[in-house]
Design a protein that fits this description.
The protein has about 450 residues and is α/β, with parallel strands linked by helices. It folds into 3 domains: about 1-115, Rossmann fold (3-Layer(aba) Sandwich); about 180-295, 3-Layer(aba) Sandwich (Cobalt-precorrin-4 Transmethylase, domain 1); about 300-420, Methyltransferase, Cobalt-precorrin-4 Transmethylase, Domain 2. The protein has helices spanning about 1-5, 30-40, 55, 85-95, 135-150, 155-165, 170-180, 200-205, 220-225, 245-260, 275-285, 300-305, 355-365, 395-400, 440-450, and strands at about 20-25, 45-50, 60-65, 75-80, 100-105, 115-120, 125-130, 185-190, 210-215, 230-235, 235-240, 240, 260-265, 290-295, 320-325, 345-350, 375-380, 385-390, 405-410. Strands 3-2-1-4-5 form a 5-stranded parallel sheet, with helices on both faces. The relative contact order is 0.08.
Length: about 450
């Protein structure tokens, strides 16, 4: 600690208005400093014995000569990018006579000021400095900060400048607008089971959410990998039992996004396949909230595969339809029944277990073949998965053995269920995951498993 204190520097990050800057040097080091000045729209002058072509390309005014003491007249800031002791000595002589600020590139102990790693959003500037200790550190921190900032920050900062110029300052309004800018809702498809069925994208996103709202089918394994600081709120909806209405859920998502939070809406399967994700996204977008949709593995296709049933297969099915067993208000929609007449076609029914009698009677009355193969997959890809196969004629009997959640499948491809492997719940390679596990750890593990 004593050694560190010896080199510790007391510094104050400030912004300089219209500085008069002289850049001494014309090589690659000078070029890097010139880029920073140009990006900030700062005027400066160059003196160098040789000027590289890259600097000439910028069309910056320069004089090609050996640096002399008089060259510093009319400048209050000097950047020495030469590494030349003679230049350093001349600058030290100038400092004895008048006040100037000097930056000797890559020599922190000889600097009166440091260049920061900058993020520029029009008139908003974000600077990261380590007092010259490590440019690499500041660049990495800067880039990490950038990932957290909204793209529209520059336009917003410019708007606020316009308001200040026109004396339209409203502090409370600006606070609300700024928080809204940072708020974002991620509508995340969590697949059909535990962490095994999360996408890498979903896993990464779960690690930095402030709050999540989750449905009743979200597996505890997924909730367990959320960081301890993430608040969890249950908003599950199942048939005949709603903890909150859809409007209430929408307004909750909006409320926390307006507070500048990163909000996760966790949905079983895929959010856009009978998941009402589109309704939630549209509501938020209409309220000027940034929304990102993260796809998930839908039970529409994962459940058949877990039961050894390929939705399509040459010679058995060259097309597939996904329908719902009930529509708004729990009513039965019979319009899809005609699909069961199609040859070489698979029909997959989600949320259809409670509508089995309607399905059966409408199908029989529509002239559907009683021998049409049918399967019911209960609790797909879980430790208590059950698969029941038969035909349309005994559909009702099969349904009495099944439990929700369940997926119904109609078509000749069901014959594969006796041939292809079914999902087996056993040792889960990802059970070691904890709230401390990073996405990089998961990626490494995935590569090993592959």
């Amino acid at each position: 600690m004593e050694k560190i204190n010896k080199y510790k520097i007391n510094s104050l990050p400030i912004l300089l208005r219209n500085p008069k800057i002289l850049l001494i040097g014309g090589g690659n080091v000078a070029f890097q400093k010139a880029k920073v000045l140009i990006e900030n729209e700062i005027e400066f002058f160059i003196i160098a014995e040789k000027v590289c072509e890259e600097l000439k390309y910028f069309n910056i005014p320069y004089k090609q000569k050996k640096f002399e003491k008089s060259d510093a007249d009319n400048f209050n800031i000097i950047i020495n990018a030469t590494g030349n002791d003679e230049v350093k000595n001349i600058i030290n002589e100038i400092k004895k006579e008048r006040f100037i600020l000097v930056n000797t590139v890559d020599v922190p102990e000889e600097c009166d000021f440091y260049f920061s790693s900058l993020l520029l959003y029009k008139n908003l500037k974000i600077a990261v400095s380590s007092d010259g200790a490590s440019p690499t550190l500041t660049q990495i921190v800067r880039d990490k900060i950038k990932q957290l900032l909204p793209d529209r920050l520059g336009e917003f900062a410019e708007k606020k400048l316009y308001e200040r110029i026109n004396s339209k300052i409203e502090i409370e309004k600006t606070k609300k607008e700024t928080l809204r800018l940072f708020g974002k809702v991620y509508i995340i498809g969590c697949g059909i089971g535990g962490v095994d069925f999360l996408t890498i994208k979903a896993f990464k996103t779960l690690q930095y959410l402030n709050i999540v709202f989750y449905d009743h089918l979200i597996d505890d394994e997924i909730l367990d990998i959320l960081p301890k600081k993430t608040k969890k709120i249950y908003v599950g909806k199942c048939k005949g039992k709603h903890s909150l209405s859809q409007d209430e859920i929408n307004n909750l998502l909006l409320e926390f996004a307006l507070k500048g939070m990163k909000v996760g809406r966790l949905k079983n399967g895929d959010p856009f396949i009978f998941g009402r994700g589109a309704e939630e996204a549209e509501f938020l977008i209409n309220n000027n909230i940034d929304v990102e949709i993260i796809p998930g593995i839908s039970s529409a296709f994962a459940a058949p595969l877990a039961a050894g049933i390929p939705p399509t297969s040459r010679g058995f099915a060259n097309s597939v339809s996904v329908v719902t067993g009930h529509i708004s208000g729990g009513a039965f929609d019979s319009s899809w029944i005609e699909l069961l007449k199609r040859k070489n076609h698979t029909t997959i029914v989600l949320m259809g277990l409670t509508q089995v009698e309607n399905i059966y009677h409408y199908a029989i009355n529509s002239g559907i073949d009683k021998n049409l193969p049918v399967a019911i997959v209960s609790n797909a890809a879980s430790s208590n998965q059950k698969v029941f196969t038969g035909n349309l004629e005994n559909l009702i009997a099969l349904s009495k053995e099944a439990t929700s959640p369940a997926v119904l499948i109609f078509g000749e491809v069901i014959k594969y269920s006796n041939i292809l492997p079914h999902y087996e719940a056993g040792f889960n390679e990802l059970n070691y995951l904890s709230t401390e596990t990073s996405s990089n750890d998961l990626l490494k593990k995935e590569r090993v498993l592959l």
